[in-house]
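Predict the 3D structure for this chain.
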Amino acid sequence: MKEIQTSCGCGCAASRGTELKPIASGAEAASAAELVASSREGDPVVLEHPERAERDASADGAAGAIVRAGMVLLPGGEFRMGTDDKDVFPLDGEGPSRLVTVDPFYIDETAVTNAQFQAFVDATGYVTEAEQFGWSFVFHLFVPERLRPSVTSVVQSAPWWWSVEGTYWRAPEGPGTSIEDRLEHPAVHISWHDASAYAKWAGKRLPTEAEWEYAARGGLDGRRYPWGDELTPDGEHRCNIWQGTFPRVNEAEDGYAGTAPARSFEPNGYGLYNMAGNVWEWCSDWFSPEYHRSGESVNPRGVAAGATRTLKGGSYLCHRSYCNRYRVAARTSNTPDSSTGHMGFRCAADV
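Done. Predicted structure below.
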């Protein structure tokens, strides 16, 4: 196997832009393999790749036609963004909390589902970057047994992320796996470029980080989660994150080991689903841990350029012992061409 560098412990930032380091065989490869405590074998269905097309498929889109379907109009205004909590990741630029203002905007009730992304691909012939690269990152427990011998690289600091050839949104655990029973789950293995292309076709756009956090808070002021400060009020799970011993055993006490349907759990105060956990969601902003200290406070859009784009919300792999980034103020980033099995998106639109 080979190892890939990453900057985020849970593998949030497993990206394509890092150099591969060879682990040809022996103890190091065995050590990575030992992480596998169980696996989920996909349905043995061989799927044809969609015909290749130019990446900008917006010419065949339906701009403006569905801009309000499945969206919520938020009033905007001033809110408290970020956090002053001690249990944070300072290097991520989560704090300090500050007053930020956003204009009214629309935002999707849910992350974009496999069914929705499939409609986009069927209409345009769009080919995702995972397909163009020929591989994407799959969490080790989900790699089918028959595909494991062909895995040649893992993330160096997070060896539970395996690079699996032939993985893309329609075959999320590799060749022969399927989304047929997950059409209402969030589409994953979606890069920032892919998400932007879908949004343009749909007559929408990606939300800014400020808009996303305003929406996630659901009208609550300074709370840790979209529903309040307690993770499981009265013992009730409110989001899809990891329970158990990461990364070996997921007890799935919330009902899900991988992605959950996009309308799982109770929505927040704005009627938005899964603003914590399930899948990381792309924002339009270039990522910076310092911009908010001196940047705009009215409709902030981040730095003018950068190396990575911002992600918000956490995922089904987040666990307090390793990555409690399922908090509203938490943030991470990845290169805009990267894709994993826990990254998706939702769209916004101007009023």
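Residues 114-124 form the longest helix (11 residues).
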